[in-house]
């Protein structure tokens, strides 16, 4: 019964060429983005911004699921309606970020382990009563001098597998997110090699922990050279390297891959996703979609600036960015669509 429930949730999220909006930023991350555009760092402003997002007219044309934070799933609109209920009424499935963040991995300088397994079974049970039908857990892998270590990769794969098992037990779809960071001076090949190792280790652990692969969503990074490498990769090169890496690492039983944007600009994220679908869709066993945060939200946030007078313009930018992401999922995005 739960197996069918998981499959139906995934099918509904990605129906009609849609994708996922990640709006699960932690308070420190949200504060950082607010500070950059001069928005006061208050609970009230975070609530106003999230209400702006969930009430954007037509967002459901491109977005099938939205990932919320613990704070957001408990927030209400100014009319007193829970944010999750606003999404559900629009036909957008609410999800929830359940990890407690990446912390330093003891004994392994410059490496991190994501925490949050303690009490997760109980938290998932509560979130389900609040409307959440899928969840997210992010592991962070850094490329640098003599890192990542095998121990770091294994520790994060173990945590992702334990999290996924608890989600599926609760009838909640786990988004499994092993992010190899773009920061660093590594080459595209360096990113490819680490991403392949991370994904193969991850799926070995998922198999060991009896995860139903047909009931998960994979949220990986694209294969791109490091931001400090000084070497640019063409759109088609990124698409080809990413596809080759995934074909070598991800079982065909996985129903959907929803890329993170990982610090790419909105246009770059759309161009790369578009090239993957346009050039390779016929050869891929999975739905290849998006689970973007900044790549959908940033233009909206820049325009809003915390002012009610900018609300309509900001919502139009959010709607447009979501539409462009959905076009890229179909392989129909063109740079001329950028307003």
Provide the fold topology.
Blueprint lengths: L1 H12 L5 E5 L3 H10 L6 H12 L8 E6 L1 H4 L9 H7 L3 E5 L4 E3 L7 E3 L5 H10 L4 E8 L8 H20 L3 E8 L7 H21 L8 E2 L16 H15 L6 E4 L6 H15 L6 E6 L1 H11 L6 H19 L10
Parallel strand pairs: 1-2, 1-10, 2-3, 3-6, 6-7, 7-8, 8-9, 9-10
Antiparallel strand pairs: 4-5
Summarize the structure.
This protein has 339 residues and is α/β, with parallel strands linked by helices. The protein has helices at 2-13, 27-36, 43-54, 70-73, 83-89, 120-129, 150-169, 188-208, 235-249, 266-280, 294-304, 311-329; strands at 19-23, 63-68, 93-97, 102-104, 112-114, 134-141, 173-180, 217-218, 256-259, 287-292.
Question: Would you mind describing this structure in some detail?
Answer:
This protein is an alpha/beta fold and 339 residues long. The protein has one domain: Alpha-Beta Barrel (TIM Barrel). Helix content is 46%, strand content 15%. It has helices at residues 2-13, 27-36, 43-54, 70-73, 83-89, 120-129, 150-169, 188-208, 235-249, 266-280, 294-304, 311-329, and strands at residues 19-23, 63-68, 93-97, 102-104, 112-114, 134-141, 173-180, 217-218, 256-259, 287-292. It has an eight-stranded parallel barrel with strand order 1-2-3-6-7-8-9-10, surrounded by seven helices. α8 packs parallel to α9 (235-249). The radius of gyration is 19 Å and the shape is globular. The model has no long low-confidence stretch (mean pLDDT 96).
